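Researcher: Here's the sequence for the chain we discussed earlier.
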Amino acid sequence: QTSATRPFLNRIINGAMVISQAQAGASTTALDSYPVDRFKYEASQTSKLTWQQNAGSVTPPAGFTNYLGATSSSAYSITSSDFFIITQRIEGFNIADLDWGTANAKTVTLSFWVRSSLTGTFGGVFSNSAGNRSYPFTYTISAANTWEQKSVTIAGDTTGTWLTNNGSGITLRFGLGVGSTFSGTAGAWAGSALFSATGATSVVGTNGATFYLTGVQLEVGSTATSFDYRSYGTELALCQRYFELITDVTGQNAAFCDVYSNGANLASLTLTYKATKRAAPTAAVVGSFSTSNTSGSLNLQAGVQNFIAFYSVAGAGRVYWFNNANSGFSFSAEL
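Model: Thanks. This is the structure I predict for it:
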């Protein structure tokens, strides 16, 4: 079955790693960054992994054009409290039908394509927002530098609290090096915060090691089905619920907007997002942003459907916002 017969079959957003709004395909080592949309890099140490969409320029598995790649920057020996993970938090509204935390909890299957320069047992975990229910899992990479498809089936949790609102419903993590404090026995639910399975391979333990991932799918049932492709526009809109850029993509230093200050010496601009946000987002200026009145100050007020930019000026008059070489605004409502 596909999404035509089972709407929103895949609960993962951007599982084919197609959308990269914040990074635009560039590499990053920053903690808490999104090398591709909806997949967040979280770690206990800086400068140990470099992430990039299509890192290493290898050929993706058949049917895919993009992947997410990580490269180890050194041979780092992890401590008990270390963790290096790539995470997607699935909104509660999108997993409400799974009935996790009840006697009717549904079984789900995770499938994905993975490629690494290392072989052996690798780990990941499912957990709730409170971090007091975790299910570590393992999978085996048999051949180095070869795309392999994996699937993991788990019985849904019949206990614990699993959010079904706009909070974090289910958190999926892939471990690239996790210490004993955050590792647990694979194949069983645990009442603690875990990030991977005990004994899993540490990618950060080998200098130059690579880990590539694509085709990530989470679906109801005990069998992995073919990847649920959505149109690019649909996938982008799903991503924009959590993060959106409003910029001048021409890079021509064109006027971003043209407003007139009223008698209260306040110029304002209201723009509507392309997608309603999960929650009121954090707004920020991106790049080199300027206005025609340099003596004023900018204040951004962001709601779930639109945002207002207020610019205080010294007297009434016309104010131009200039968008310099792809600069503009970003809005994050990530989980």
